[in-house]
Design brief:
about 0% strand; mainly alpha
Amino acid sequence: MSSSEQSSLSLDAIMWDRCAKQRRMAKVDDLQKDHEARLTALVGEMAGKGSESDWALVRALIHRAVHVAAERKAAEFCALSTYLAEMIGHAHGLIHGGDQSGAAAHRDIVH
């Protein structure tokens, strides 16, 4: 087999792998939308009982999600960590929005 043929085969393998990964991600995105729709109904029943209760609900959902990932081996640690980091940025934008002038100082809310 010539080096040109080997190069072509390896490029085909790379493209096949990328396509397969994109199909898997599309399926995960669809499943996530379905799960979020069901969770929205449940959260609607549980939320709205005060800020402490809502914060406890947020914490419980995140904590439970981490356990689901670990117990069911649903994700590798690095994938879970990366996703959680992305969600931190997402939460920051949702909570502060574009106008951060009225936002509490970040150092005021620490663990």
